[in-house]
Amino acid sequence: MSSNCFKRFGGKWVSLVSHRPFSTSSSIQNVPSDQGLKSLNLFSAINQALHIALDSDPRAYVFGEDVSFGGVFRCTTGLADRFGKSRVFNTPLCEQGIIGFGIGLAAMGNRAIAEIQFADYIYPAFDQIVNEAAKFRYRSGNQFNCGGLTIRAPYGAVGHGGHYHSQSPEAFFCHVPGIKVVIPRSPRQAKGLLLSCIRDPNPVVFFEPKWLYRLAVEEVPEDEYMLPLSEAEVVRQGSDITLVGWGAQLSIMEQACLDAEKEGISCELIDLKTLIPWDRETVEASVKKTGRLLISHEAPVTGGFGAEISASIVERCFSRLEAPVARVCGLDTPFPLVFEPFYMPNKNKILDAIKSTIDY
Amino acid sequence: MRFISDSDHKRVPCYRVLDDNGEIMKFSNYVQVNKEMAVKMYSNMVTLQTMDIIFYEVQRQGRITFYVTCAGEEAVNIASAAALAFDDIILPQYREPGVLLWRGFTLQQFADQCFGNTSDFGRGRQMPIHYGSNEHNYFTVSSPIATQLPQAVGAAYSLKMDGKSACAVTYCGDGSTSEGDFHAALNFAAVMEAPVIFICRNNGWAISTPVEEQFRSDGVVVKGQAYGIKSIRVDGNDALAVYSAVHTAREMAIREKRPVLIEALTYRVGHHSTSDDSTKYRPNDEIEYWKMARNPVNKFKRWVERNGWWSDKDEMEVRSSVRKQLLEAIKLAEKEQKPPLEDMFNDVYDQLPSNLKEQERQLRETIKKYPKDYPSDVPL
């Protein structure tokens, strides 16, 4: 993986402006013009968003394991010094406690920005997220809500993370009505999407591609901006096949698209960004145009969110499909250390699937 | 080399004010309760008892689907509520409806929730007894055990940061203390210096599991010290002791910005719920003993009567008036419409996402086609 592809990503946005209304669409702002751009990596973009969130709302709090000194990935650098130890603080090493605490804090009208150090360690908090946060509004008839809760967690492969520093658990959370799941693909996306998540009136799980923390560098507007949730983005226009992905996988897919182009195949690439509630319409419109669909994610293929996308699109676009929907995903093993290169849905696996879908 | 013992030689004493005859014990140190407060407390206990008897019966008649009584635990319910201020935020488990009653939730509102009608704040989405009311600072009950405890720490932290002269108060049972959330909550509360009171109703039984099979420690109270939390064991069937302990704990929590753990020793006289038959796992004479000899309502009544604040006539009047009001409330609640179908889809998020809009539309078409498949009392 080279950082060049991320830089190349920078100037390619098709549209950052909201065109489909959703819950917070009224508060979504355009990205500022190209003035005030600064080259940033992903952890610094996250850090900027957190600075803005704490600065713009005195009732915003950032907490989690080791966040006080800046966090193990440096995302919370400088926050405690600037906003004080009562608003940015370490918690005991206990994920269910962090999320339970965050729910209570959010339910009192605060913005509770909780960090789970690795997505691999989010499971002790599963009950608090699934049974509590997700149902807080519904079960009370909207008398109470914990919409101010945002859970940040680094996810995905990093080259040497093995079982417990590499997982992509997004599908578990996509099965839970009441929460939103958002995953950015780049620094610019991370800043705008995280601010939207923090200010969204619903609890959100925000997975950050940890491989990109330092690797992905992009021109990021210095000012505040928000990017709409539940809105996918056509990152690359094409006519022969639609590729759908999210997070770190987008850059791998982009590389496959470029190689396919050399062989005369025109790929349309979509970044889903919000996994629930997801923007089916954008994917549907693209597949109706191209007649083919490939989904790629790092998480194991069985029961992954790709299965949901595939089923939904087959339901709606069956007569337009020229080939079966392809899935290029992680394999159905625990995430393996030495075998990581074999496990991963890499460029050539995707390229192969593009070609066999075209040739079907 | 010396290992710390697995338990202290002596059990942690239990703070009591009233003896079983309802007389103030010698050398008792307690917070005074005046006539007006005492009468209100006793009336509320009677109301709670009556509510339990009637709702239980209504469930047995098949008119509501489920019920949980708090028989035997009326003193913990009412006396703890009485010792708090209205601004204190309650995060209940499910056996504390007395706290909500004390705060003014009406019998009609209780009945509406149990029937899941259109006046139920929860829009008929949860089983009976899952009460909640924003205006009464009483978070909505959820069934999972102990999840409310770390949430209470977050709520308490918010109160502290906002400079409020109030605390968060959360309840749980003895079974809850085995859950991870219990330990997470105590530890977080101590470390965050959060003004939260944990009230554990140690009623001897978690459904069919007795405390001997729940933990090996000297009850719950000793767990507080391990987390650096001031703790007290109190006779949960002694309303004056509960009142004094909670009143004092509240002052400490708010003034010193710290959590307090209260273990209230009591007994679950009723079955766990209407889905349970506790005679299958515990002896009848044990239930009878706690129901009669250790009854918390009778004990408090003796003290109130001894002060000349309560008569048989008052008793008759309250019981018959509550009974009448409740039967009327139940009649109305039963007649009232269920919430409309749209309430099935509302409140999942702050606004309806497109997938739910589509599912609602599809469901309505299906209902039109097969109306007999669906309950007729839900307005479409």
Automatic annotation (TrEMBL), chain A:
CDD domains: TPP_PYR_E1-PDHc-beta_like
GO molecular function: branched-chain 2-oxo acid dehydrogenase activity
One biological process term in Gene Ontology: branched-chain amino acid catabolic process
Residue stretches making up the Transketolase-like pyrimidine-binding domain: 40-215
This enzyme's EC code(s): 1.2.4.4
Subcellular location as annotated: Mitochondrion matrix
UniProt GO cellular component terms: mitochondrial matrix
Cofactor: thiamine diphosphate
Reactions performed catalytically: N(6)-[(R)-lipoyl]-L-lysyl-[protein] + 3-methyl-2-oxobutanoate + H(+) = N(6)-[(R)-S(8)-2-methylpropanoyldihydrolipoyl]-L-lysyl-[protein] + CO2
Self-association and partners: Heterotetramer of alpha and beta chains.
Designated name of the protein: 3-methyl-2-oxobutanoate dehydrogenase (2-methylpropanoyl-transferring)
From TrEMBL, chain B:
Location of the Dehydrogenase E1 component domain: 44-340
Pfam family, one: E1_dh
Protein keywords: Metal-binding, Mitochondrion, Oxidoreductase, Potassium, Transit peptide
Listed GO CC annotations: mitochondrial matrix
Localization, UniProt: Mitochondrion matrix
InterPro entries: Alpha-ketoacid_DH_E1_comp (IPR050771), DH_E1 (IPR001017), THDP-binding (IPR029061)
Species for this entry: Lupinus angustifolius
Summary of subunit composition and partner proteins: Heterotetramer of alpha and beta chains.
Primary localization class, coarse: mitochondrion
Reaction equations catalysed: N(6)-[(R)-lipoyl]-L-lysyl-[protein] + 3-methyl-2-oxobutanoate + H(+) = N(6)-[(R)-S(8)-2-methylpropanoyldihydrolipoyl]-L-lysyl-[protein] + CO2
Gene Ontology biological process terms, A to Z: branched-chain amino acid catabolic process
Record-linked SUPFAM superfamilies: Thiamin diphosphate-binding fold (THDP-binding)
Family: Belongs to the BCKDHA family.
UniProt GO molecular function: branched-chain 2-oxo acid dehydrogenase activity; metal ion binding
Name this protein carries in UniProt: 3-methyl-2-oxobutanoate dehydrogenase (2-methylpropanoyl-transferring)
Record carries keyword Glycoprotein: no
Enzyme Commission code(s) on record: 1.2.4.4
Keyword check for Metal-binding: yes
Cofactor: thiamine diphosphate
